[in-house]
Design a protein that fits this description.
0% strand; elongated; mainly alpha
């Protein structure tokens, strides 16, 4: 009975620590994914006359192909810079993009603020 009490006490002390470790791991994964999306945009720009996805490769930043969030991310997905799972936070219940047209239902809230040129 004393041993059972000690086990229950230890479990009670360890559960919050495990939850904190899980939250920290999720935050690290989110940061890694966001950094990966940024790196993909930079890599894309290096081959597109320094223009991010959504801008044509003519060198004139006023020439917009599709500068919406979906348009920019679709270019990166179509060119295999990353997979659809990379756009979804592990803490969100979102269906990752599997192919076809990307919609707002396929990426995390953290990616909503990709501004348009001049915007």
């Amino acid at each position: 009975s004393l041993m059972a009490g000690v086990v229950v006490l230890l479990i009670g002390m360890l559960l919050p620590a495990l939850g904190a470790a899980r939250r920290t791991a999720g935050q690290m994964q989110n940061s890694t994914q966001i950094r990966g999306v940024h790196q993909a945009m930079v890599m894309y720009a290096q081959g597109n006359k320094s223009n991010f996805p959504g801008i044509t490769g003519t060198g004139d930043a006023r020439e917009v192909a599709d500068a919406s969030v979906e348009g920019r991310l679709q270019v990166l997905l179509d060119n295999n810079y990353f997979t659809g799972e990379y756009l979804v936070s592990p803490s969100e219940n979102i269906r990752a993009w599997q192919g076809g047209r990307l919609t707002r239902d396929n990426y995390s809230y953290a990616l909503l603020d990709i501004t348009t040129p001049g915007g």
